[in-house]
Request: fold
Amino acid sequence: MAAGTQAASAARLTEIIANYVAEHPAAALLEEGRVLFDMRSARYSVTESHGRCLLELWSEERNLVRTVVEVQERAACLRLMTRRMGAAKPQALEMTPSSDRRTPTAREAARRAYQRILERALARHFIGAKVDGLRSAMDLEHSFGPAYVRGRLLRGTAADAVIGVSERESAAMVDGVLTLGILWLDFCRQKSDGRRHFGGLKVIVPAGAWRTTAERMAWLNGAAADFGLYTLDERSEELAEVDFRDNGNLESRLMHAFSAGAALEHCHAGIDRLMALVPTAAQPRVEVRANSSTEVGLRLHGLEFARVRQGVAARGFARTEELSFGAGANETPLTEENEGVCRELLARLFQSRHADGTHNHALFRMQPERWLEAEMRAQVERVFPGLRGQLLCAQVPAFSTGERGMLDLLTLDGNGRLAVIELKADEDLHLPLQALDYWIRVRALNADRQAPAGGTRALSAFERAGYFAATEVSPLDPRLLLAAPALRIHPANQTVLGYFSPNVQWELVALGEDWRRELKVVFRKRGNEQ
Reply:
């Protein structure tokens, strides 16, 4: 496409943006240099509507709706001049080929340099072994990307698979190295034809970026492979082994449970006002959920479209109430003047977001995992018999090593054993290890047991924080339950799960593609069947 400014028709602007995303599937959308959306995991819609180019993006963290008024094609990005509803001035967004701001030439040069450094470091550290076949070429058939250097360490007929990632790669790339390492080990074993025994996997990560990989590696099956973790200082070219079996206690803490009933009671006036704007026939479809002790959200199939917040006036102790509609960048305070706009938007939402809706409509496709979560909350005992649906907790806020996280769905089985439920509506190569992260955190919190003053039984962190309605929580390790539509389960997920420690009791459930209408189990796979 010719360089320059495109102050073109809405149809032309739509075509330019759609073509750019198609040509760059790993594109990222940035605002003031900050990544808002990684297109590998985000969803988007770009359409021509009433003479406007309408760009909609959504992910688990946020959503965005903008009118694109101009496109500027630059060497390293596509610059979008956009206008949000009610804003006086256009705002600039940048669409880049990837979240990595380096030019393709610089990125490839850095990866070649890292490969040479890694080869020298391996040869010096593993004396007597031959470094063989290091490469970083993309192999989409086997899910290998160019960010990871992979190869083999040979000792006669014995061998180890090796994979490394540079400090110049993104944090997400570094954290993903163990998934790719397991797949590389499995690939090497399949291709060896019995001529060489691949006994283990050696993973090399940047110095100071080993903790996530270490925590995950500690819960892999040592009988299935000899796992080793190393850090590489790219300046000194020195490898250092990390004892992932003894990387310290995982520090986790919970936010205290709040009274959902009290939150709903405090916000009832605002809820009533918002419900009056919802089409009458659609009101039974609204899910009203307390997000915190001072905030209640109104949702339609998992998509929060309005909320009520309680606060305290800046001067005095009088309580204030703020109502808003929309989400993310498009959250708008509700006023008497814009009630008509809100009513119109909600009518569009309820017309589009239902099981029989148009599948390519943005409001239908938005936040599919939240939709799946809403269905699972209502049907969890059908999908996972033996779980206690009445004790199901969603989006439990927890902190670990300084980072805040949300435990998707958490409940107990009939024996009081914790069950971590991880859902995916779309294909995700890293699902098993990301779910393992939650499991590790829940296990640490459950193992944190203290007896209250005058008490006779040590309580888990969940019990002390007020979760599960004073029900006794078993000290047994949690169960790990994963669910996704059958055609959206990445082919590599079961391979990775097969390398989990037997101490991680996991179950993978494949759901029918018509899950928005009803959750039907197509098949299930359990860890003890490996």
